[in-house]
Amino acid sequence: MTPRQRAELNIFGLSVWSGSVNTLYPPHRHNEVELNAIERGHFTYMLAGQETTVAAGEVALFWGAIPHQVIEYAPGTQLHWGTVPLDYVLGWELPRSFVDALLGGDWFRDPNPYYDQRFFARWQTDLQAGQPAIALMEMRAMFFRFAQLPHSAHAAGSAPYAEGRQGRANTMAAYMSGHFQEALTVADIARTVNLQPNYAMSVFKAAFGMSLIEYLTQQRIAHAQQLLIMSDASVAEIALDSGFQTVSHFYNAFSRLCGVSPGRYRAALRG
């Protein structure tokens, strides 16, 4: 499945497709809620600094605006993906606590799903035939079932120190996910893994395909997106709460990553 792009935010729309995991992509973002139904094998995601493994038979969902990537997978892993536009999800009148947790970067996993891979295959057929109505009704019911499940909260503090280049990169990502609201410097982040700043930057870039600052900025923008949707705070208040030192820096970063201004983004999703 090839996404469309608006600025640096991928756009998949309402989609379901099937395939295999055969590469480790760099961190990416999109504004839909992502669904994964594992048919065979397993894979491990990093989302908001938290590593989560999804196994065969499970279904998981999360908000794709949080930077995420597959960091490990079993050979031959087969799965079904789905993406549901955020405005659909917000219009389904789901429990507020569930929506807050979802947009905050929490994982939801169902090890014994009612809406399993068979439903995903049917939804794919429905969407390809241009008949999304029943698929959307079933997806809505699935989200309500997920709202009743416990979730995996994202890391709020320092991650355990991990050895090796990938381990150090993961530790830095987890640290940024827990501290992005602070006035972090590259030196602060590098200190968490006992590396010199320049070397820390190269280790992170090799592992994630982007700079430390870009990853940190994406975390901050995802938090700002959540606040724009779920709160009535002003744009200036949101900028500061998200870790930006100036409102102008926030506007520039938000427009670059999301393709629209913060005000337009809020208006589009809140009507």
Question: Mind explaining what this structure looks like?
Answer:
- By secondary structure, the protein is an alpha+beta fold.
- The chain has 2 domains: 4-152, Jelly Rolls (Sandwich), CATH 2.60.120; 165-270, Orthogonal Bundle (Arc Repressor Mutant, subunit A), CATH 1.10.10.60.
- Helices cover 44% and strands 21% of the residues.
- The chain contains 11 helices and 11 strands.
- The strands form 3 sheets. The chain has a 6-stranded antiparallel β-sheet. It has a 3-stranded antiparallel β-sheet with strand order 6-5-8, with no helix packed on it. Strands 1-2 form a two-stranded antiparallel ribbon.
- A hairpin with a 2-residue loop joins strand 1 and strand 2 (9-11).
- Helix 5 packs across helix 7 (197-208).
- The longest helix has 19 residues, at 212-230.
- It is globular.
- The two termini are 29 Å apart.
- The model is unreliable at 2-7 and 155-160 (pLDDT under 50).
How would the global form be characterised? globular
Provide the β-strand percentage band: 15-25%
Mean pLDDT over all positions: 88
CATH topology of the largest domain: Jelly Rolls
* CATH-defined superfamily of the largest domain: Jelly Rolls
SSE order, one letter for each helix or strand: EEEEEEEEEHHEHHEHHHHHHH
Task: Output the structural class.
Answer: alpha+beta
**Low-pLDDT ranges:** 2-7, 155-160
Number of helices: 11
Major sheet: arrangement of strands: 3-9-4-7-10-11
Radius of gyration: 18 Å
> Could you tell me the number of beta strands?
11
| First and last CA, distance | 29 Å
CATH class of the largest domain: Mainly Beta
Main beta sheet: strand number and arrangement? 6 strands, antiparallel
Number of domains: 2
CATH architecture of the largest domain: Sandwich
Question: What is the helix fraction of residues, given as a range?
Answer: 40-55%
